[in-house]
Amino acid sequence: MATNVKRDFYEVLGVSRTATDQEIKSSYRKLALQYHPDRNPGNPEAEEKFKECSEAYAVLADGEKRARYDRFGHAGVAGNGPSNGGFETVVDFQDIFGDLFGDMFGQGSRRRTRAQRGGDMREDITLEFEEAVFGVTKQVKIRRLETCDECKGDGSAPGKPAITCTTCGGRGQVRYQQGFFAVARTCSTCGGTGRLVVEACKKCKGQGRIKRERTVTVKVPAGVEEGARILYSGEGEAGVYDGPPGDLYVVLHVKEHSFFQREGSDLHCVIPISFTQSALGTEIQVPTLEGQQKMQVPEGTQTGTVLRLRNKGVPVLNGHGRGDLYVELKVQTPSKLSKRQRELLAELENEGAVENKPMDRGLIDKVKDMFA
User: Fold this and answer.
1) Looking at domain 114-149+209-256, what is its CATH homologous superfamily?
2) How far apart are CA 88 and CA 181, in angstroms?
3) Residues of the chain with CATH 2.60.260.20
4) What is the pLDDT of residues 187-223, one digit of tens each?
5) Which of 237, 243, 265, 273 could form a disulfide with 323 if both were Cys (CB 3.0 to 4.6 A apart)?
6) From the centroid of its chain, how far is CA 90?
7) Alpha-carbon distances, residue 213 vs 135, 146, 208, 210, 250 (angstroms)
8) pTM: predicted TM-score of the whole model, two decimal places
């Protein structure tokens, strides 16, 4: 007569005798996913392997049983379970498999609770350049799910309260026996809520929430940049069955300026000056975000020279101070000259105002960097 000899539990799970609890759990998870009956319908060999690895895990995952097994082998744990020598194991799929198990096998292993948090929302708004720089307060209209004021989120018509689900007894889960272990699944009757609506609320059609348009005051701080997000906790959609509301994320988009370019907290612009202004020096008016600002152009200024106006940039976000405004000067050469202008420039040339001498290497590199 053939004798059915059980394999070593460590061998079954493919781990060493010194394996940690996490290693044992991880190994069992892989094997259970591989041999689960739902993935191998009509395959008795896979079913036997699934039972074998589940039995091994039931012992090795329990500290007391594992100690007895390590000392006495199968004889140390043979007294557990039903009289046929098997093991009645209630497998906690939420602990072992999490959402993955439910997604793969459609078993809904996650334990749903009655109270559920509301969904988060996103609202995009576009700001003018100056609004992003100095800050602004805007009124934004949003449409969100809010708790129905007729049924107070219960989903039941007034005077018709929900009853306890008779299938699961209000637990939201149904436990059934599969071979030598028990499995808990989400109740298909109540969908895991543990309750049944007798008569649905007419206003929300039993959903407990309805769509409403609300106006939210958005305070944009000074110095925000493109893509910045502002979080408004609790301003998202209402929760289900007294669950907390979600959050509202306001995403900011900033229009470009026609004159200024922004780099962090600094601003940059280009101002044209004439040949005589660059040669003799002058005082010019520079536009800023707060009006005109006087700036001195030194005598002999070359094209590409960058001058700085301190504290005329963007306020530092959630900080102190402001950035600077950098003004790049571009010397413009006149393309059309009067007879008198030509005479004056010719006279200037005869005076040797500019000498055409070769530049040294260092100066050439500086010129290249300027145009780059």
Assistant:
1) Urease metallochaperone UreE, N-terminal domain (2.60.260.20)
2) 5
3) 114-149+209-256, 261-371
4) 877 777 787 888 889 999 888 899 999 999 999 999 9
5) 265
6) 36
7) 25, 9, 17, 10, 16
8) 0.58
